[in-house]
């Protein structure tokens, strides 16, 4: 079993984040570096345990999934301006943690299977957060901003495409893997899932490139 193309794009995005952080010292890059590093470790460990029949593969992914969504919630919290939107995110975080714990303890377990209920809940919330960001972006006080030059626009666009697509493809998973479509359906599922991840990490790379140079700004203030 080979590592997927997604793993390659995760490594590329991590390396690009490191490269531009050294040059720019931007806070967004500082937040993404440990997150992407953890993502690469989880992906590689998951592949290794799959090949060698490791015992804790599902547990690892089920713990990482809420961490991933809480990280994205944090990003939206610091980029959204309206207090009501920030309150929505603050409400989401403890509720999401509670749902995760309850699901692990009494519904899907921590290591029995992948917790797709939590993944779908997190995906839905990220899509909502993306809509809130785009709503703010078209308000009169921001209408003059060129969105294509804003780093978080690319991050948000990648998240929206990835998780909206993930909700749809996971909702169709049982149909795609039914007896009539089992082999072909799994291939379609994997192909679409990998494509969505490539879009996500490519959008991250564009955002890292567009991040302003805080190192240069700090130097000019000395």
Task: Tell me about this structure.
The protein has 222 residues and is mainly α. The protein has one domain: Rhopdopsin 7-helix transmembrane proteins. It is 79% helix and 0% strand. The chain is built from 9 helices and no strands. Helix 1 (5-24) runs antiparallel to helix 2, helix 2 packs antiparallel against helix 3 and helix 6 (151-171) packs antiparallel against helix 8 (182-210). The longest helix has 29 residues, at 182-210. The radius of gyration is 19 Å and the shape is globular.
CATH class wording:
Mainly Alpha
Q: How many independent structural domains? A: 1
Query: Structural class, please?
Result: mainly alpha
Q: What is the makeup of the main sheet? A: none
Assign a percent range to the helix content.
over 70%
Order of helices and strands: HHHHHHHHH
CATH architecture: Up-down Bundle
Report the portion of residues in β strands: under 5%
The Rg value, from CA coordinates, equals 19 Å
Question: Could you give the count of β-strands?
Answer: 0
Q: Segments where pLDDT lies below 50 for 5+ residues?
A: 218-222
* CATH T-level topology: Rhopdopsin 7-helix transmembrane proteins
Number of helices: 9
Average pLDDT rating:
88
From the spread of the alpha carbons, the general shape counts as globular
Terminal residue distance: 54 Å
């Amino acid at each position: 079993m080979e590592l997927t193309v997604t793993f390659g794009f995760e490594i590329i995005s991590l390396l690009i984040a490191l490269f531009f952080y050294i040059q720019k010292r931007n806070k967004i890059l500082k937040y993404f570096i440990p997150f992407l590093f953890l993502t690469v470790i989880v992906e590689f460990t998951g592949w290794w345990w799959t090949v060698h029949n490791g015992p804790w593969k599902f547990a690892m992914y089920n713990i990482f999934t809420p961490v991933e969504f809480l990280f994205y919630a944090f990003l939206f919290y610091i980029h959204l301006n309206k207090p009501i939107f920030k309150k929505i995110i603050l409400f989401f975080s403890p509720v999401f943690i509670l749902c995760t714990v309850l699901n692990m303890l009494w519904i899907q377990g921590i290591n029995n299977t992948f917790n797709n209920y939590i993944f779908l809940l997190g995906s839905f919330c990220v899509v909502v957060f993306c809509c809130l960001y785009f709503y703010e972006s078209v308000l009169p006080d921001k209408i003059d901003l060129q969105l294509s030059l804003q780093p978080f626009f690319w991050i948000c666009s990648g998240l929206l495409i990835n998780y909206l697509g993930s909700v749809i493809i996971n909702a169709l998973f049982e149909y795609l893997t039914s007896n009539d479509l089992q082999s072909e359906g799994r291939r379609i599922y994997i192909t679409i899932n990998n494509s969505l991840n490539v879009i996500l990490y490519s959008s991250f790379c564009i955002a890292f490139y567009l991040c302003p140079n805080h190192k240069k700004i700090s130097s000019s203030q000395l």
